[in-house]
Amino acid sequence: MGIDLDCGQEKMRALIIILLLSSTTCFAQKTKIDYIVFGVYCGECDHHCATMFKIENNKILVDTTDSYFRHKKDTIIFSDYEPGKEFYNEAKAAIDSIPEILLDTNLDTKVFGEPDARDQCGIYVQFKTNNRVRTFLIDTEPENGNDIPKELRVYRKIIRRIHYKFYQMVWDR
């Protein structure tokens, strides 16, 4: 009793085609993000109350003018200021780790928790994919996380860490 290793050319071709198709569909499922805008906003604040970042075309832009509040979130004004490649590499985590719950939702906007309801600030995330813009507001306080999915709680920490690093780099010198 032995194993017949002579599969024949037809069976081998079919196996190769199946393997190639299955491997390319895994890569095709990665969602292409055209841009992402994210940041932390605080309604009761004196300076730098809504620092926003935009990652697009492999570069990062920053808004430190609080235009998030003045322009109703629709037209945040980004300056030509670029914080550099090192910060871009750090901030790229915001685009690389967008939770599936945000990517897969049928909603264009959603609020998680009660962002900035008690002067605790909020997180703003907006991204464009497949000609569709989606915007999310996320509570910053861990204790307000009962209705916030676990993967968003992790993402919230990533956004806060990026914001804090920028703040240290620019204003805490």
Question: If you had to describe this structure to a student in words, what would you say it looks like?
Answer:
The protein has 173 residues and is an alpha+beta fold. It has a single domain, classed as Mago nashi protein (2-Layer Sandwich). It is 35% helix and 23% strand. The protein has 6 helices and 6 strands; from the N terminus they run αβββααααβββα. It has helices at 9-28, 67-70, 85-91, 93-96, 100-103, 150-170; strands spanning 35-41, 50-56, 59-63, 109-112, 122-129, 132-139. Strands 3-2-1-5-6-4 form a 6-stranded mixed sheet.
How does the SSE layout of this entry go?
Elements: H1 9-28, E1 35-41, E2 50-56, E3 59-63, H2 67-70, H3 85-91, H4 93-96, H5 100-103, E4 109-112, E5 122-129, E6 132-139, H6 150-170
Parallel strand pairs: 4-6
Antiparallel strand pairs: 1-2, 1-5, 2-3, 5-6
Just name the CATH architecture. 2-Layer Sandwich
Strand fraction: 15-25%
Q: Could you please say which CATH topology applies here?
A: Mago nashi protein
* Tally of helical segments: 6
Mean pLDDT: 78
Series of secondary-structure elements, N-terminal to C-terminal: HEEEHHHHEEEH
Helical amount? 25-40%
